[in-house]
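Because discrete structure vocabularies remain unfamiliar, we first show an illustrative case, written as a sequence plus integers encoding its fold.
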Amino acid sequence: MQIGDLLDRTAIAPRVSAANKRQALAVIAEIAARNFDMRMEPGAVLDKLTERETAGSTGVGHGVAAPHARLEGLARMRGVFVRLAHPVEFEAVDDQPVDLIFALFAPKDAGVEHLRALARVSRLLRQSDLRQQLRKARSADAIHALLVQESASRPSAA
């Protein structure tokens, strides 16, 4: 599975203002509800994301978070990418604030596909040069191109 299969340009927000983790997740929930072909309100998507966060933070380090949730009515794996204007506290493993967030959403009955996609995103965003380029990118198109190009140049683990 490639990043281009998960992430549409319309699900990328290159400069989001959020004062805290909950506001950042609320923006992601709004983007997901608006862009994915399902009948779920943003509040319900936010509930699923925060439910997952209570089990343990999805802040993976180096200013990156990978929140994820399974959603009713979702036909396939989907992603939302948000770059925050200012990093927010996310209870990340390295205690650093987060400004790059790649959220993954899976159908309610998704199996190992969900875990493979999460591993792929995590591997991708471990690359410091890519993180640096994502922080400098000015548009959703530029961010999409960086993520898709880098993903395509790395062999899939699946």
About this structure: Residues 3-153 form a domain with the Mannitol-specific EII; Chain A fold (CATH 3.40.930.10). The first strand starts at residue 12 and ends at 16. The chain has one domain: 3-153. The mean pLDDT is 91.
